[in-house]
Amino acid sequence: MTNLLTRRARRANRRTLRTTLRTRAAAGRLASSCRRRPRSLATVALAAGVAKDAAAGIAGGLRSVAKRIGLAPAATARTRRTVAGGRARQTRSVTRWTLAQVARLVAAYRPRKTEYKVAVVLLAAFAGGAA
Hints:
65% helix; 131 residues
């Protein structure tokens, strides 16, 4: 009987380890993708480790900074995807930014919210190598 419990515990532990590995691999792929080609500001924020609910707010703030300093995005596209991961009914224009551009935006961004200030530190560390 103890052997069965031990086997169950080992399987549960391995399941947890596989989940952790899957999460880390996905995060690594996303970060690598952001380094290779322009991505949206929300995607770069998620790759930097910003919480999902704060990523959209940070992206909006960085877009207003881009407008203020006159920085144009690297690419513009049409997509049906939304930042929340669902499907949108209509296509919408999205802008894609390189990491060097994100680093410039982060340097000029002065948020007030505490969670956004933490997100700026994460983004600066993530995009800092491209500046």
